[in-house]
Design brief:
27% of the residues lie in helices and 21% in strands. It is α/β, with parallel strands linked by helices. The protein folds into three domains: 16-278, Rossmann fold (3-Layer(aba) Sandwich); 283-316, no CATH class; 344-448. It has a seven-stranded mixed β-sheet with strand order 5-4-2-1-7-8-9, sandwiched between helices. The protein has a five-stranded mixed barrel with strand order 10-11-12-16-14. It has a two-stranded antiparallel sheet with strand order 3-6. β8, α4 and β9 form a beta-alpha-beta unit. α1 packs across α5 (253-270) and α3 (168-187) crosses α4. The longest helix is centred in the middle third of the chain and has 22 residues, at 281-302.
Length: 455
Amino acid sequence: MRFGKAICLTTSFFFAASLFAANPTPPPPPLPNTPAAEQGKLNVLILGDSLALCGFGKRLDERFRQDPNVNATFTYMACGTNPLSWLRQKPYTEVQTRCGFWSIESTVPGKPPRQFEDVYGMTAGHVPGAEHVPKLEDMLDALKPDILVIQSGNNLFGLFPDSKTVKPPHHAAELKKYLLPFKTKAIDAPSNLKKIYWVNPPTSGRVDKAVQDFLLQQARAQLGPEITVIDSRTLVSYPYQHMEPDKEHFLGAQMNEWADKVFDIVQKDLGAQPIAALRPLHELGAARAEPVIARAEPVAQRAEPVAQRAEQVVRRAEPVAPPAEAPIAAAPLPRVAPKKKEDLIVKATLAFKSAPMQLNEMLPYQESLVAYVYNIDKVVRGEYGDRQVLVMHPAFIALKPQKLDKFKLGKRYKLRLHPLEGTLWSTAKTRDETGQINLTPFIPVDDLKQHPNQR
């Protein structure tokens, strides 16, 4: 068994699920008060996922904390997070991480930062408990950060089940659901953020280059000019010297190298103008919108003669229609309540089973899915047009292997299914060897409820 200092993962913990208590976890600790800032100094907020727990977050925190232009630094690293995990948005409103959490918070000037650490390997055999993921809305209000650096994206690779196929319209729309809400909350008032840096993942050995290229392209397109997107693949070389079995997480000097280069990029960008000249991003957005509105006004003025000519045409046409005694009010359109999308119920025969991930391939994450294909025999309820259905079954929940042997090839099952999209399972680690990239993935409703964060 091997542990890194940071500690991002272990190589075997089959017993770990028994360590999770059923007792409710306490609420997250209150955020500290931000120390009063000297004029021209910045408050920095750093957010990261499991890669940050492997050393990146601690090193980046140290670099900012040593910077004379920085007043206070607040770093939060939560394993298994995606951009929505940091928001109050459903279904992530009360989401907890169960595979590692670490916070480093400035308190009193001149004093060491306050730290809370619950990660793999702190003591022999230690497995993290459930910790609440802090919410960006609360951090913006309490910490008053000027600068945000968020390292994220590798958990969005779960949106590409076979790890290699990109369907641009579909996947662009899927990524937008994760990226745009985060951008909106980070930029819009009352946020005081003046600079945001999105640190896209370094090279991953478990997904194809096409997937990584697409994620970077979409991050830049959807986050827009307000957010600086950093391509980490150009900063640290792959394969990594101390790489974990999942071919994505790594430890050691290359983590420091990655963090140092990200810090240098941020420093160079901040040095391009006086810190005192930085304005909140929501103010810059309003300023950019004003000229567009001003330019649009003459267009409306030029359109007036057209409207006048149209009025004359209408007047000439009036004798054609019989005069009405009184105006007749149009009948109001009936209001139709949106139809609730019902679950799909089918009778189907199991035709193909992907092999589930091994535990050492998914650590430090504690949940994973595996893809099965069923031939549709009968649609009992709902609408479904394909002859086969792609079903994602949980292979591990809280590190506990699920009983997949009960699913037999050639056997018929009655399945109640829910679309995987938009659920807490949608970004889980997945093994999909089916090749059925055109089928919409579903998850059994009973399994949907088994996610540890499902309320």
